[in-house]
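Sequence in, structure out.
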Amino acid sequence: MATLWTFGDSLTFGHGCRPDGPTNEYYYNYRSESDDVWPNLLGKMLNIEVKNLGKCGASNDFIIDSIIDNFFMIKPDDVVIIEKSFYQRFDMPKLNSNTFDTYCAEDLNLINTNLKRNDDNKNKLEIETILNYGILFCDHFLFKERQNKRFKFIEKQLNSKVNKILMWDAVDFTDNKIDTIRNHTNGKIKDFHFSFKGHQLFSEFLYKKLYTNPTLI
């Protein structure tokens, strides 16, 4: 059976609309029986299995790595949808660990506060490196250009491999362009991720782009 592969950050994962996410107040208080996140809704529309590899807070480096890690498992009849996350997110290897931590430009003030409070020289060095990279480099046009070059290469490779591929940018769907949790709850939950209605609308939008109107976006 064909598979729908989805790669991205919290907008793909379904932040707020799943019981297994970092927050689930909205899920438990506002969900109706037919509500779901857009990868599952689109999978039902296409009548195919779903592998949702979205991760909350993911950087573009993480998303690209996820695609590479799964590339040879993607089959010709599959559908692949890739979300490009915010360019200001960047991964740094965590000292004394074999994992990355993801940071975002808007978090740098908090990191700077932690630096002032920390007496450990190794941790100070780690935090200073994060701050310097975040302030000086992560928003540089070459950083964005490199990410876009990698996404374009992956898109070209997948175009020759699978039935359908679609790439979209998180920036294009912020600022309430799709119904949000904040809208649905009248501001009770201050969350700007897709509401259940937003997920439904977005799944319909993607279906139209895949099969009827590729000029959307």
